[in-house]
Amino acid sequence: MAPATSSLFAETSTDMSRADATKRISVKTLVESPGLTSIPTNYSYSTNPNESAGSNPNEDTFPVIDFSLLTSDDPHKRSKTIQDLDRACQDWGFFMVVNHGVSESLMKEVLEGCQEFFNLPVEEKMEYAGRDIWQPIRFGTGVDVKVEKFFFWRDFLKVIVHPQFHFPNKPKGFSEVAREYCKRTREVTTELLRGISKGLGLEECYIEKKTDFDAGFQLFAVNLYPPCPQPELAIGIPAHTDHSLLTLLIENEIGGLQIQHNGEWFNVNPIPNSFLVNTGDHLEILSNGRYKSVSHRAVVNNTATRISIAVPHGPSLETAVGPAPELVDGESGRPAIYMPMKFKDYLERLLEGRPCNLDHVRVPVA
Question: What is the pTM of this model?
Fold first, then answer.
């Protein structure tokens, strides 16, 4: 594994208004520099001509799943919610979960802990700087320029929290709050996967068993998006899909998440105290394409700092996930469209600075 390196955050020009910084520093440090009126050129993001701006959907546009009905003892309520969940995964690959049982106070505490972490002195955060994706605790900014030609307008903290729990020891109490939060999100995800299994016509624990979910890979990924003087020229995170089965996300009431649906981008305005859930690559693979790994992105603004916490839940690293055999039938026109690949191998493409997406496991069409 590559050692942590502080060269990731080299000093840049003291005259930030010149916007000619050529070395990477944390975006928070950049924003706090005096005289910043424009972004350094290496943060400039060129949008695709076919890439539209986000629009505000109608209030009832996004699917909403009532978790209390999904776990209800009433078979009719549960069955109806499973149908709604199946439809949301097919049509959107995204939904909001309400009445999930995770307390509002815990969600608020973990967001506050993230803010306190990013407010630590640079030297203390630098203890976790590094580029190795297997580094259990990793603080950084943007992405490796081997993958992208520009820097993202965000700082991040990424922590592997399952099957072994790791976490920074500062700020005080943050680790304990995060441990409880990760435990609770894992419980919610388990119930969602059980409902999804039933929606696919499989036994309730099918996905858990086939992905070795008890030993599954869980990441705690926090993104800090400081105010940007030229938000129209920068991007928090460009369009991408997640590698996981499901990702649960919360934010600090500052918008920025956009979801792509039928080629159109929509701004996401969460229901208070809800989880934003999106389907990932490995749920698309397991469902043999019935569910789509949804493309999403994070845009920035010039007025307020946005914090989001994404918790992707994936298979165990040693599990090779392919289409469920029950969902494959070559004779009836449902051949397998994906090849199995070990989840660890799927992720390790990132270590090599190579793109990692569904195209690499898609069965070639003859």
Answer: 0.91
